[in-house]
């Protein structure tokens, strides 16, 4: 019985290490998709953005970022993203992943909209 418990604990620890190698977590604890964050915790390419920077338009989302709104942003950006590009946010906040540079939105997470 003890060997089974040790095996389960090792398997759980291994799975946690694989998860952290593939993606990183939002501050509230849910994980960004591995593709979105390029599997790298260090670059900070995914992060929460202020709700004031996002406007819902008939064509989708207009995301206006200024330096300080996202750690990779060094100058003003306006991204227009269709509704189909939005992924469900795990915490009800907006998040944006920029990769390979600050000019390229790779993934956009938005809260669910109730109608």
Strand content: 25-35%
From N to C, what is the helix and strand string? Answer: HHEEEEEEE
First and last CA, distance: 52 Å
Helix/strand/pairing class, anyone? Answer: alpha+beta
Question: How many DSSP E strands?
Answer: 7
Low-confidence stretches: 3-22
Q: How large is the count of helical segments?
A: 2
Helix content: 10-25%
Could you describe the largest sheet, including whether it forms a barrel? 4 strands, mixed
Rg on CA atoms, Å: 17 Å
Q: What's the pLDDT, averaged over the residues?
A: 81
Number of domains: 1
- Gross morphology is globular
Strand order of the largest sheet: 1-6-7-5
Explain what this protein looks like in three dimensions:
The protein has 115 residues and is α+β, with helices and mostly antiparallel strands. The protein has one domain (2-110). The chain has two helices and seven strands; from the N terminus they run H-H-E-E-E-E-E-E-E. The chain has helices at residues 2-22, 34-37; strands at 46-49, 54-57, 60-65, 77-81, 86-88, 94-98, 105-110. The strands form two sheets. Strands 1-6-7-5 form a four-stranded mixed β-sheet. The protein has a three-stranded antiparallel β-sheet with strand order 2-3-4, with no helix packed on it.
């Amino acid at each position: 019985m003890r060997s089974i418990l040790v095996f389960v604990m090792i398997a759980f620890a291994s799975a946690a290490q694989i998860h952290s190698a593939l993606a990183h977590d939002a501050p509230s604890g849910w994980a960004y998709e591995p593709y979105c964050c390029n599997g790298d915790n260090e670059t900070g390419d995914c992060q929460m953005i202020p709700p004031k920077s996002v406007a819902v338009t008939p064509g989708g989302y207009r995301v206006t970022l200024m330096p300080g709104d996202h750690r990779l942003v060094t100058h003003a950006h306006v991204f227009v993203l269709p509704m189909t590009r939005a992924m469900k946010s795990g915490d009800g906040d907006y998040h944006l992943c920029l990769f390979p540079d600050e000019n390229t939105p790779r993934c956009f997470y938005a809260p669910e909209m109730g109608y």
